[in-house]
Amino acid sequence: MGDLVHVCPPEAFYQQFLSQLSINRTDDAIRALMPLESRPGLISLLVGKPNTSCFPIKSLSFSAQDPCDSSKEIPITLSPEELEVGLQYSPTTGIPNLVDWLYKLQEICHGRKRSEGWKLSVGNGCQDLMYKAVTSFINPGDSVFLEAPMYPGVIPMFQTIQCDIHEVETDANGMCSHKLRQMLENWPTSKPKPKILYTVPYGCNPTGMTVSLERRLEVLDLAHEHNFIILEDDPYYFVYYGKAPRPPSYFELEKQQGRIGRVIRFDSLSKVLSSGLRLGFASGPLPLMRAIDRHSTNANLQPNSMAQVLAISVLSRWGHEGFLAHTTRVAQFYREKRDIFEAALRRHLTGLVEWSSPESGFFIWFKLLLTEDGTDGCSEAAIRTHAFERGVLALPGTVFLPSGRKTAYARASFSQLEPDQVDEALRRLKEAILDARKTGCKE
Ligand SMILES: Cc1ncc(COP(=O)(O)O)c(C=O)c1O
């Protein structure tokens, strides 16, 4: 499979996916010339960089866990050169040694080699890069496909643009590709089809579901047949703890099929390295990635240099193997948290909630059985009012639906809690559901 010719659409093909805002956006004259500064022998009078000798931070030492033995720590002291890079402005798309390391990671994890017609850029978390993608690709009124329920952190991005949102149903096997096919095949001829589909393919936030291989292949086929780009938002890739081997990402599958150029993949270091460092990276077709980069030069110039230096100083010492050993341990940690949470759900809430076991991520998506007659209730009052009054905070499912419609579902996060806290939280939730049942939570 790896030797297939990788047919990537020409540059001009991607023009149709750019928003007017992105087409209008011009380059920052200084940043556009910055790559030339690395030419050997050149004396640069270009950028008004501050002189780092004037900065007060003179050294930085810390320690990182040994990825193969969590009882050991590796001491790290930044070299003067590393410190200088961390304290200074740096390239829009990321500092070169981190970018190189991440390209190699994409090759290891997704079989995508550098220089095969795609590009990687670092951002301040994948949220930052997604916001830039959404505004770079979507015009007011454009149709988009969003999986539902979905990560509520991106819903406002789409709503603010006032685009035409079409929810694609998901179930225990992730996005219902057959429903997507039906929507596309019945699309009104008078209206342009969506050019973007947003999905979280592993450990979806909130459902915890991972999309099956068959459905991934169908979604990719549909992207080609009906001409849309897949935004693969994947911060839980490295915390996959499902029993079955992890299916390939969309980014990997499109290469296996020998027709690349339909997927932009958003990765995050938040769940495995640090969420406070605010580091994520996007990988996708050159013209689309350049539009994201241009937004960065306009909006915030670049991702945080020091965060990148801290990250690469750890990652380069670990190596890719060490990083993957670390993420395997992290995934195991969350699998245990999930098991504890599910055991407590069975103990306290059997007959009061239903759920499917998540295979990645930090969340349980559960249906509250609120009515005696078995009809679907609405979790809003049960969670916002009754649960809060009983001393437990969770999210009602309606916030995960772009339409904001009623749902009996709710989301609980189990990433932080100790077993006794889980036990107490779910004991309280039981009381809250019984309270809600008395009032018949239909609204
Ligand atoms: C599905 C999803 N996408 C993106 C993000 C944001 O990731 P980052 O911290 O890399 O910006 C989150 C954070 O919870 C998330 O759940």
From TrEMBL:
InterPro entries: Aminotransferase_I/II_large, Class-I_PLP-dep_aminotransf, PyrdxlP-dep_Trfase, PyrdxlP-dep_Trfase_major. Residues 88-429 form the Aminotransferase class I/classII large domain. GO terms for biological process: alpha-amino acid metabolic process. GO terms for molecular function: pyridoxal phosphate binding; transaminase activity. It holds the Pfam family Aminotran_1_2. Its cofactor is pyridoxal 5'-phosphate. Belongs to the class-I pyridoxal-phosphate-dependent aminotransferase family. This is PLP-dependent transferase. It comes from Cristinia sonorae.
